[in-house]
Amino acid sequence: MIGGSLGGLTAALLLRDMGADIHVYERSPHELVQRGAGIGFLPESQRYLTTRAGVALDDIAIATGHIRYLDREGRVVHDERHDYRFSSWNTVYRQLFACVKPDMYHLGHEMIDWQSGDDTVRVDFRNGTQVEADVVVFADGVNSVARQRLLPDAQPNYAGYVAWRGMVHESELSTDTFEMLDDAITYHVYANSHILVYPIPGIDGEIERGRRLFNFVWYRNYMSGSDLDDLMTDNDGTLREISMPPGSVSPRHVNEMRAVAAARLPRPIADVVCGAEQPFVQVIYDLAISKMAFGRTCLLGDAAFIARPHAAAGTAKAADDAWSLVESLETYTDVTEALVAYEAKQLVVGRNLMERTQRIGRRSQFDGTWTPGDPELIFGLKAPGQ
Ligand SMILES: Cc1cc2nc3c(=O)[nH]c(=O)nc-3n(C[C@H](O)[C@H](O)[C@H](O)COP(=O)(O)OP(=O)(O)OC[C@H]3O[C@@H](n4cnc5c(N)ncnc54)[C@H](O)[C@@H]3O)c2cc1C
Predict the structure, then answer these.
(1) Residue ranges making up the domain that contains 69
(2) Residues 275 and 341 in one domain
(3) Residue 383 lies in a domain
(4) Which residue's CA is the nearest one to ligand 1's atom 52?
(5) 334 torsion bin: left (phi>0), alpha (psi -120 to 50), beta (else)
(6) Model confidence over 88-114: pLDDT tens digits?
(7) What pTM does this model have?
(8) Atom of ligand 1 at shortest range from CA of 300
(9) Chosen domain end from 264, 285, 306
């Protein structure tokens, strides 16, 4: 397994459970940390932990019961009953990582090359190590080096906007703000933008009231070229392509973002945005591919399709790829046939998710046709609500 984030870990654990001698090779020299970014936590993302690892959903995710929209003055203009679960990247990673035996997960292993033979694949790492495996799964994320080599024409397309993100401790919010945001995902939609706020576990996974965080995701348009490049140039002057981690966004942009929030967003939402200490930025991309299986190797998760986050389904897609891969490997004795069967199923899932989330994003950021209560906006991997 190349890449040891949520997709790679889930697939590795499932392969281990089916009896494979599986090893995960992760580029990062340290255990991964994403400083708490929230995730809509769909059933596919919950599945390994709740069905195989004996983890109770209530211990790792917050339940909310409403979808709420606020107008500019902070009045509720739409409120519907809908149950969601929210967690955070750290919380889920920590739980999956706890299921892994130490000799199965190898940090500091950046894959730089591989050679496919008839019966095995040889993988080379930057640290000089070489390994041979029967099957290699590339779960190396948005910037997958495997995808770049296997499908050089498949390039991520900038969607025209980024997600500004951040978290604030719920104990730091005023009572009025907390009461407005509690038990809900709360939206505000305006010309060429939308923002959403929801509760997530604390940095160390705390789910008790009073110790949780509120997370915001604010989609804002930036023209490609100098507009985007200026935002994505970090404090050290380095131009970043995919994301600006907490603490790296220039104070000029953070100040601009907070000033717009204070002037333009409903008060409870602006309180969350302005209260976030180290906001960060993720650029939104689309990428569809035509193949996921290549002999004894395959792509999985964001290394395959990149879908915009509007269905809250990125980690669910990676987990669904993992379950589907293992089902195919259990069904077929021939590995290459199994990978072709995996590809046939998951190409459909990836393509549908990408097209659905592209449509939703266009409606919000460019067409101005996003209406509260529209069933298409419900989160879900394979369809809204599913
Ligand atoms: C704004 C935003 C909001 C989102 N919200 C949600 C949400 O609400 N719910 C949800 O489910 N998803 C959400 N997502 C999507 C989700 O974060 C991703 O889809 C998911 O993390 C993909 O997991 P992955 O394991 O495929 O890839 P990644 O998490 O990108 O992991 C790839 C791993 O591979 C490693 N790696 C890379 N190259 C190499 C190499 N050469 N050798 C070895 N290792 C390597 C990396 O270090 C990394 O650990 C959101 C995404 C964005 C941008």
Answers:
(1) 65-84+159-285
(2) no
(3) no
(4) 309
(5) beta
(6) 999 999 999 999 998 999 999 999 999
(7) 0.96
(8) 26
(9) 285
